[in-house]
Amino acid sequence: MTDLQQHSLFVDLNAAQQLHLRYIAKADATGPAVFFMHGAVENGKIFYTHSNKGLAPFLARLGYRCYVADLAGRGESKPAIARGAAYGQTEAICAEIPAFIDKIIAHSGEFPRFWVAHSWGGVLFNSAFARFPEYIDKVSACAYFGSKRSLYNRHLGKFIKGNLIWYWLAPKYAQKHGYLPARQLKWGSDNETIKSHYQSMQWAKVLPWVDSDDGFDYGAALREKSLPPILHIAGVKDKSLAQPIDIQKFMQESGVGLQELKIYGRSHGHHHDYGHIDMLTHPQAVRDQFLDVQAWFARHGEI
Predict the structure, then answer these.
(1) CA 147 – CA 240 distance, rounded (Å)
(2) Phi-psi region of 32 (alpha: psi -120 to 50; beta: other; left: phi over 0)
(3) How confident is the model at residue 130 (pLDDT cuts 50, 70, 90)?
(4) H helices of 137-272, where?
(5) What residues does 78 pair with on adjacent strands?
(6) Mean pLDDT confidence for 91-99
(7) Is the pTM of this model over 0.85?
(8) What is the dihedral of CA 254, 243, 211, 226, to 10 degrees?
(9) What's the CA gap between 216 and 214, in Å, rounded?
């Protein structure tokens, strides 16, 4: 038995696409709205299970109203990514994130005051702040789990997962299938379009933070901006996808606002040595980073 409720909200993005937003909250919750964004080759399930495990249910039990997004074609958004899907991260930044926010406002009666992201979701969120600076003052705080833009670390795993798989093998599979079948290849929980893979690959290669569609310069737009306070979470076992150096470089190009990086592992006094995925899914996360997210949100905008 649980005091939490979960149900799905749907957003008609256009005549052909419907976005999915999972609402998780106590039945009588009136607390701030929290907006969750997953990363590449993932979907919103990184933040919750139907049996109420994960960060979203954890925050919901504290009174927050949690809204977990599935980007177009991922999770329960429809239709699923397939051959011919032509959208990418530009559409996620410019159309999907605003559409999710509009739905959250319509459902909750307020702008989502707290934003939570995993991995590439943090890049999408900061890109949205660059495109829509009016969002900045409406957000009290953010928490990003393993979010980096470009890969600077030189760990062997980075060369395998980055250079070999993401930069070399993935384009070949994407061209063969008409999309990147990451779920079937067991590279992640969901698939990517050719465009979303290509665009994220270019940014991960330590290239300028510039949009390949219209040339919008995200780095220049954020250089002097003060974004909402951001807690960055790194795992000691996350050696290839988001080492502290990768996260620090992302922090440096994300404006002049308050940002804090915390590393999670037994050597830092925590209950587990966390990696890129289990920093959100391990049972001990409730005792470590989840509590710190709670404290960060309380510090920057208490219920």
Answers:
(1) 12
(2) beta
(3) very high
(4) 156-158, 170-177, 194-204, 218-222, 244-252
(5) 18
(6) 98
(7) yes
(8) -10
(9) 6
